[in-house]
Amino acid sequence: MTNQLSVDHLVGIKELQKEDIELIFQTAEQFKNVLNRPIKKVPSLRDVTIANLFFENSTRTRLSFELAEKRLSADVVNFSAASSSVKKGETLIDTVNNILAMKVDMVVMRHPNPGAAKFLSEHVDAKVINAGDGAHEHPTQALLDSYSMRERLGDLAGKKVVIVGDITHSRVALSNIYCLQKQGAEVMVCGPTTLIPKYIHELGVLVEHDLQTALEWCDVANMLRIQLERQDVKYFPSLREYTMMYGLDMKMLNSLSKKIIIMHPGPINRGVEISSEVADCDQAIILDQVENGVAVRMAVVYLLAQKLRINA
Known about the structure:
By secondary structure, this protein is α/β, with parallel strands linked by helices.
């Protein structure tokens, strides 16, 4: 088992090896133990400065990264595009280079444009972590999702996971597909035809349009929210009709022939993709995902910081 990542940046799951995923999970396990101690802090990154650059709104991901960084004793700088010179026409590279001139070692970035993190990693002298780039990838979300599944199911090889909802506009779906497949899991997507991208078959996933059939097939159902903010045209008649077809409630969950695990990357639109009863039931591991997010992001930040020292 290697003790360092094969990549210098985390711009997507696609670039990771299976060994990288295993290393991140092993490291996250150690940090989860730290988080459950009375003193939840380690001095691992006392000499590292990290900038969180969020060009899109975020609550959970930004807080999760910030908490992970502070638990590792890193110096943290938070940057919000809404109150920055980006509004005055400054380019992404100029913005980041100005921040790096202040001796920042690592950049965690969320950006509305697909490929922004990859572009940045090729042009700046700092480690880059993609916290979501448009509808492309969201690698740390996929890692924490898989980590949470493994806590309940053990090895994911041969396990069946269905991702339900707005696949077309979801960066979570694409990263999850890559991450699950690298671990040997079978993946299905389920949703209206208008919200399933045409290229999806090329990724080797199954497609199902009936929610009941998909839920009977799977061990885990990852319920995605409808990303209305990314939709420039109407993809279905109404939210009410979507909920009737693809919303998960306790009646449907209890009608299944086996118990399945319910996940959601958040934020939840209660009463749309899942009912409040499902979100709060024993089969849902949504709060586990939130807790594990800090440990997994600690692992990613720590392992990339190790590369800083090796390359120094």
